[in-house]
Amino acid sequence: MTVYCPAVDTSLGLRDWASTGVSDAARHVKVALEESLEHYLETRLGLLLPEIENLPVVCNETSIPVDPDTIRAATQFAYSLPRFVPIPEVSADPDGEISFDWTGPSGEMFSVSVNKRNRLAYAGWFGEKSRVHGIEQLAEGCPQQIVRGIEKAIR
Questions:
Q1: What pLDDT score does 132 carry?
Q2: How far apart are the first and last CA of the chain?
Q3: What is the pLDDT of residue 41?
Q4: What are the residue ranges spanned by the domains of the chain?
Q5: pLDDT tens digit string along 128-145?
Q6: Burial group, residue 48, by CB count within 10 angstroms (0-12, 13-18, 19+)
Q7: Kind and range of the H or E element at 134?
Q8: What pLDDT shows up at residue 107?
């Protein structure tokens, strides 16, 4: 009997699960699941990843170029985003970081900047009396504060 038991991921993302099975059947299940996840995420990430990878070409002379470590961190962040999150606008910041921006229907905004050291700086504006900002470290899943900020901006 083969049982698949993914690691708990409270971010609702679909990446970064751990497998401890060593049998041939366990390896087969792991490969099949990875292929299914790739297919499931293909369209969404197919739109987002090329934007991230093309950012160094878009930079102008007055900004710091986006380096490969920042692109790697931004790609990892994109993979960690929960499936229900709309595709953000992606842009290069003048300081060489990569920003992910969400704008809600009533003008609410939430932004996350990723740097080459895996730092996630976020800020949200949800009206005159509701704002949030902070810093998180990029890990296996999307930090809950960031998920909550995105949810608040897009509803």
A1: 97
A2: 43
A3: 57
A4: 24-154
A5: 899 999 999 998 889 999
A6: buried
A7: strand 131-137
A8: 93
